[in-house]
């Protein structure tokens, strides 16, 4: 396979065929570079699952529903999924990880508990935390050392640890407390000091912030704008000298756009909304075009429209499907008052059929516009405009037909915005020169802008989730809580992501997982690396155990038992390869989110909770298949 | 290298062995009546006279079953008989083997739970045919007559659920969520069915996550409550999920009547504080104690109990009124 | 000229009563390629293991720059500047080229415990070193698994050269490759030689050995069939010796008889 790869020239997948220069230095476009990340499938899946439950339930998208699944991720699943992902990249499993969380929680509680003669050491929490950490790292060390010394698969060794821990938990609880439940953290002398650190809570309803909606709207809009500009930065060829006229146009467009948003904020009538939407659209088009004019080389030869028969057919069929799907949605009565019980009702069938048709239609249109990228500028423009028109059509159907205010407002707005962006993008792509070589400066600024954009969107959403407005309080919004656990999760995940990407140890993790013998030959301390990986997992188990202990103050002996498979599933859903050597820590975190969302979503949608395992099964299957597909595609692109 | 490993393995084996022994021997001591420590053997035996009874259950030696075991041990000590406690850890196969072994050992009586009647009825009928008295305990109220058992000692889940339903009626609830911590468990489902029978309002039955992950339980219940503002009562069919329900309701600031099943220290504390209205107590100590007592009376005095009907050990209720007393007893491990 | 970079004299190796090598003598100079040829079972792998410190010779002496040395452990051999590129390369297919290049010796910034890889430097050096060997990697971010076999060999060679190898032992680098790819590897062997490394090229293919070799040593059943400089030997002679001389002369007749 490798011989063939080397002797063949780069295959002409869209946008990579380099003209002139070194034909081996194929340039990868921004989307291709993003798509070779292991977690990309998981990100798409998470957005899909979220959208699905947002659509079918009343409360999933609210602050309460969001903190629900975020809390599941933060307090148990997420931290462990990230640690297990890292271990899996290193080529090992830890089946004791679930039981270990419970064991660490019990140990922590047990050391501080004062129960007289039956046991409990009554020590301060600080001592308990340190002791617990030491024991946890010891267990990790033992796991790693045993795996290395025996050469047995970690699957078996850690299974032994799992049973040992399970037995110890039951046995010791029974012996010292006379009960399977151990309580409680509150008895520790320095409990009050540690509580805010491990279980500090944030009550949304007591944090009123009237300017919240300003941040909630402006930050994501800003972030989104920066994202689009970042993609432009990565996509186009920079001018040698910036064009000041373009900059002025950009600023004018920006001003018009901001004015449009302000107008929309101030008005409430349908006509006013339409007007402000039009203003925003003009602002976006002028602004994006101006930005490109300012910074990028314009295209000289646009060519003429060239669509082969396949493309033409796809365009027709695509539009046809969107129209038929919309027609079906309109034709079936939507005013039925029956509870939206998925999927065995008229409503369910209506939703499935029309959504499936419209999505397929849009998919075909998207394929045409993708194919058009490699033809010429004029064709690009037409094909992308066709896609935008398709999205617009769907938006119209949603607006005209949907009974739910949520769809009519949010979904309609989002679809309009998508149509606008697609159209604007088509416009600039057909007018400016695509970059086909590596430009480190442009890449760096593009990536930085991308990160700023994403952060800005997330911070905007966080404002919404953390603060309440007077109007909401008057409407009697139920109280919602979040906790410091979320920060622990974010911190742990960030450290792991950084570690894998940027440190020696991270590199060695991939090395020992990908080819242990090779790593050893060139001087990577393979055994030590693997042992340290097990210790990372046991550290995470300790952290989760402490978080659980502080959360509920009392611990059952079976806490965490059986969760280890969920961690592994989350890691696999997040794009980690079961055989090791490939994956990402962030993917594990996103995998955990995908696992947690249905738990809340099914309840929020008021479906029978029996469906949840079916859901997890389908997600796992889809994830494994699509991750494989994406990985193979990524490797093909890298050639 | 290998030497070192052997050392580690040996250490682990010792730790494991010590742990498993500690578990068994210890509970005997906790019962407060068996002065000796017979527990260094793998199977726990309370010293007694010539009679030996085998108690073969699906026990996982969790908080619930350890109380049953204490009851059986206490009866053995009181009566001067030997009780062999065989926990099947939810594996009917193990239980079948244990029953057959007990029969061939010539046991004087068998107390057995029936989590899986299809697998267990045959071996128990065989025991009865061999002249060994059999009593079913905990689960098996539908099959004990079929086996030819003397009686059944336990609580029927439906009756327990009925009791909970009446309590919710009294509290004025209109829509109760019956929150389950396992999916497809017949006993838990029957509790919810019993609730629906006697409760005047609407009952929603749903699986809310395993006991192993209380964060998941709490958030799922939270989401369910948020999605359905009409719910004003929650019955947790286990103690852990009941506490999760309490936390979820508190987070949402909802005024919900909460009832539970069985007991843990924190649940008892919550009842004492008035946060939880009641818990259904099946008084499982009785299931251990009475099984041994009835077997003893049958063997020594040919007595039969119940007149062909089961002997119900529950539902008893722990409410804010009697919680303090129960807490004291629970600390002794007999409630 | 001074003493050769690496010199072996009368090396013998017995495993119990099995004789793996007897009285093997050869040498390699800096900037030269010494080819060790032999069929399967000729003792090539024992020869490699002795040089890389995996095994110790039963008899004979190894000298580096004229000083006698013993390698009790692979690490010692490595420290002395002898790098071995094995047939099954020490590469992690799913990792990028630059990470493979640096694997185990990544350049870092910062101070313990907060240390991170200096990726910019690492990538630049990797690209630079590879291009010095004449290897044009499109993007050092691409996984090694997507490189051709010849390119992978060359990454391993470049890595060994960069990390201070003076003597490079190549274990059958061309045996698993097609004609074109083998040519690529031979080019890199020359490049390594031109950078002043002493290369010991172990192969069973005289057609690969002859074009790059400065010196040839033929092994047959654990015995050296002699050391030859390139000008003492024609390609045809090398092929003939390699194939076992008289035995092969016989072979065509036997085959034709059938």
Characterize the structure shown:
The complex is a heterotrimer of chains A (639), B (335) and C (258). Chain A contains 24 helices and 4 strands. By secondary structure, chain A is mainly alpha-helical. Chain A has a domain at 40-206 and 476-633: ABC transporter involved in vitamin B12 uptake, BtuC, CATH 1.10.3470. In chain A, the strands form 2 sheets. Chain A has a two-stranded antiparallel ribbon. A two-stranded antiparallel ribbon of chain A has the order 2-3. Chain A is globular. With 335 residues, chain B is of the alpha/beta class. Chain B is 50% helix and 16% strand. Chain B has helices at 2-30, 63-79, 92-105, 117-129, 144-147, 157-171, 186-198, 214-227, 239-252, 265-272, 284-301, 323-332, and strands at residues 52-57, 82-87, 109-112, 134-137, 152-154, 175-180, 202-207, 233-236, 257-261, 278-281, 311-312, 316-318. In chain B, helix 9 (239-252) links the parallel strand 8 and strand 9. The model of chain B is unreliable at 16-48 (pLDDT under 50). By secondary structure, chain C is α/β, with parallel strands linked by helices. Chain C has 9 helices and 12 strands. Chain C has helices at residues 44-51, 74-79, 97-102, 119-132, 149-162, 179-194, 206-212, 235-242, 246-257, and strands spanning 6-15, 18-28, 33-38, 59-64, 67-69, 82-85, 108-111, 114-117, 167-171, 198-203, 215-220, 223-229. In chain C, the strands form 3 sheets. Chain C has a 6-stranded mixed sheet with strand order 6-9-10-3-11-12, sandwiched between helices. A 4-stranded antiparallel sheet of chain C has the order 2-1-4-5, covered by helices on one side. Chain C has a two-stranded antiparallel sheet with strand order 7-8. The radius of gyration of chain C is 20 Å and the shape is globular. The termini of chain C are far apart. In chain C, 47% of the residues are buried. The interface between A and B is large, with 67 and 52 residues.
């Amino acid at each position: 396979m490798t011989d063939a790869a080397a002797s063949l020239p780069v295959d002409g997948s869209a946008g990579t065929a380099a003209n002139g220069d070194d034909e081996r230095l194929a340039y990868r476009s921004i989307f291709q570079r993003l798509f070779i990340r292991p977690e990309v499938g998981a990100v798409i899946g998470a957005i899909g699952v979220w959208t699905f439950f947002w659509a079918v339930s009343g409360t999933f998208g609210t602050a309460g529903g969001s903190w629900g699944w975020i809390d599941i991720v933060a307090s148990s699943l997420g931290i462990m999924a990230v640690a297990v992902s890292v271990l899996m990249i290193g080529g090992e499993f830890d089946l004791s990880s679930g039981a270990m969380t419970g064991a660490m929680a019990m140990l922590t509680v047990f050391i501080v508990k004062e129960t007289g003669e039956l046991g409990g050491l009554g020590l301060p929490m600080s001592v308990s935390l340190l002791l617990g950490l030491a024991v946890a790292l010891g267990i990790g060390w033992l796991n790693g050392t045993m795996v290395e010394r025996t050469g047995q698969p970690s699957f078996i060794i850690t299974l032994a640890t799992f049973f040992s821990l399970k037995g110890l938990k039951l046995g010791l609880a029974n012996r010292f407390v006379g009960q399977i439940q151990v309580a409680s953290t509150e008895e520790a002398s320095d409990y009050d000091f540690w509580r805010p650190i491990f279980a500090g809570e944030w009550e949304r309803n007591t944090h009123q912030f009237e300017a919240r909606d300003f941040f909630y709207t402006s930050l994501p809009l800003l972030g989104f704008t920066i994202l689009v500009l970042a993609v432009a930065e990565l996509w186009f060829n920079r001018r040698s000298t910036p064009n000041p006229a373009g900059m002025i146009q950009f600023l004018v467009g920006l001003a018009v756009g901001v004015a449009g948003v302000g107008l929309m904020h101030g008005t409430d009538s349908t006509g006013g909304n339409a007007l402000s939407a039009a203003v925003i659209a003009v602002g976006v088009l002028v602004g994006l075009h101006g930005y490109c004019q300012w910074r990028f080389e314009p295209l000289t030869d646009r060519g003429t429209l060239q669509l082969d028969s396949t493309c033409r057919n796809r365009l027709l069929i695509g539009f046809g499907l969107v129209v038929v799907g919309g027609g079906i949605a309109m034709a079936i009565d939507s005013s039925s008052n029956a509870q939206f019980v998925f999927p065995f009702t008229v409503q369910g069938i209506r939703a499935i059929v029309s959504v499936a048709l419209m999505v397929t239609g849009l998919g075909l249109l998207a394929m045409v516009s993708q194919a058009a990228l490699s033809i010429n500028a004029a064709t690009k423009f037409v094909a992308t405009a066709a896609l935008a028109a398709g999205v617009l059509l769907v938006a119209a159907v949603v607006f005209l037909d949907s009974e739910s205010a949520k769809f009519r407002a949010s979904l309609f707005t989002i679809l309009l915005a998508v149509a606008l962006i697609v159209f604007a993008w088509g416009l600039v792509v057909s007018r400016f020169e695509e970059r086909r070589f590596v430009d480190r400066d442009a890449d760096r600024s593009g990536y930085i802008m991308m990160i700023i954009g994403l952060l800005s969107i997330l911070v905007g959403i966080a404002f919404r989730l953390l603060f309440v407005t007077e109007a909401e309080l008057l409407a009697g919004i139920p109280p919602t809580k979040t906790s410091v656990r979320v920060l622990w999760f974010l911190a742990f995940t960030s450290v792991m992501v950084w570690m894998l990407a940027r440190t020696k140890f991270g590199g060695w993790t991939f090395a020992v997982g990908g080819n242990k013998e090779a790593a050893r030959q060139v001087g990577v301390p393979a055994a030590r690396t693997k042992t340290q990986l097990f210790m990372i997992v046991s550290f995470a188990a300790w952290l989760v155990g402490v978080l659980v202990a502080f959360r509920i103050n009392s611990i059952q002996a079976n806490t965490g038992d059986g969760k280890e498979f969920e961690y592994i599933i989350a890691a696999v859903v997040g794009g980690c390869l079961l055989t090791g050597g490939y994956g990402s820590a962030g993917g594990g975190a996103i995998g955990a989110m995908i696992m947690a969302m249905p738990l809340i979503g099914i309840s929020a949608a008021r479906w029978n909770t029996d469906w949840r395992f079916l859901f997890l099964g389908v997600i796992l299957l889809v994830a494994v298949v699509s991750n494989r597909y994406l990985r193979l595609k990524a490797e093909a692109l890298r050639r | 290298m290998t030497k070192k490993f052997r050392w580690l393995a040996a250490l682990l084996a010792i730790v494991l062995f010590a742990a498993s022994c500690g578990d068994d021997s210890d509970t005997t001591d906790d019962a407060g009546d068996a002065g000796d420590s017979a527990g260094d053997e793998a199977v726990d035996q309370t010293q007694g006279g010539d009679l030996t009874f085998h108690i073969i259950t699906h026990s996982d030696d969790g908080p619930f079953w350890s109380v049953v075991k204490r009851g059986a041990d206490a009866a053995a000590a009181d009566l001067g008989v030997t009780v062999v406690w065989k926990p099947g850890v939810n594996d009917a196969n193990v239980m079948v083997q244990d029953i057959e072994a007990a029969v061939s050992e010539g046991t004087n009586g068998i107390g057995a739970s029936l989590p899986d009647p299809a697998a267990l009825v045959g071996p128990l009928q065989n025991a009865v045919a061999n002249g060994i008295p059999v009593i079913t305990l905990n689960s098996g109220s539908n099959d004990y007559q079929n086996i030819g058992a003397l009686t059944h000692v336990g609580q029927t889940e439906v009756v327990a659920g009925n009791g909970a339903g009446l309590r919710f009626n009294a509290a004025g609830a209109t829509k109760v969520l019956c929150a389950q911590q396992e999916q497809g468990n017949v006993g838990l489902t029957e509790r919810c069915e019993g609730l629906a029978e006697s409760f005047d309002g609407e009952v929603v039955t749903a699986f809310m996550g395993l006991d192993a992950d209380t964060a998941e339980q709490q958030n799922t219940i939270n989401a369910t409550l948020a999605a359905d503002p009409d719910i004003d009562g929650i019955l947790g069919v286990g103690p852990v999920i009941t506490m999760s329900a309490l936390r979820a309701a508190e987070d949402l600031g909802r005024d919900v009547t909460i009832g539970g099943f069985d007991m843990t220290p924190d649940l008892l504390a919550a009842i004492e504080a008035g946060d939880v209205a009641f818990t259904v107590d099946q008084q499982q100590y009785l299931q251990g104690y009475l099984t041994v007592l009835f077997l003893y009376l049958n063997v020594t005095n040919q007595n039969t109990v119940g007149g062909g009907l089961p002997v119900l050990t529950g539902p008893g209720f722990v409410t804010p009124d009697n919680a303090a007393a129960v807490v004291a007893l629970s600390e002794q491990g007999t409630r | 000229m001074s003493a050769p970079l690496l010199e072996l004299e009368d090396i013998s190796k017995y495993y119990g009563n099995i004789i793996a090598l007897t009285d093997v003598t050869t040498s390699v100079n800096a900037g030269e390629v010494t080819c060790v040829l032999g069929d399967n079972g000729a003792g090539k792998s024992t020869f490699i293991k002795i040089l890389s410190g995996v095994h110790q010779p039963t008899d004979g002496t190894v000298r580096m720059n004229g000083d006698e040395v013993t390698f009790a452990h692979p690490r010692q051999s490595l420290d002395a500047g002898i790098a071995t590129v094995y047939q099954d390369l020490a590469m992690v297919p799913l990792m990028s080229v630059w990470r493979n290049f640096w694997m185990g010796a990544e350049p870092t910034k910062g101070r313990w415990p907060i240390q991170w890889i200096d990726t910019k430097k690492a990538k630049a050096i990797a690209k630079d070193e590879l291009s010095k060997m004449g290897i044009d990697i499109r993007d050092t971010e691409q996984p090694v698994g997507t490189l051709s076999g010849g390119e992978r060999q060359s990454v391993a060679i470049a890595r060994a050269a960069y990390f201070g190898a003076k003597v490079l032992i190549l274990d059958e680098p061309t045996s698993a490759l097609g004609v074109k790819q083998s040519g690529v590897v031979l080019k890199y062997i020359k490049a390594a030689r031109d950078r002043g490394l002493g290369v010991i090229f172990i192969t069973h293919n005289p057609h690969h050995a002859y074009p790059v070799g400065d010196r040839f040593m033929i092994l047959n059943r654990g015995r050296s069939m002699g050391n030859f400089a390139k000008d003492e030997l024609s390609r045809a002679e090398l092929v003939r010796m390699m194939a076992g001389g008289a035995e092969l002369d016989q072979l065509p007749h036997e085959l034709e008889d059938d």
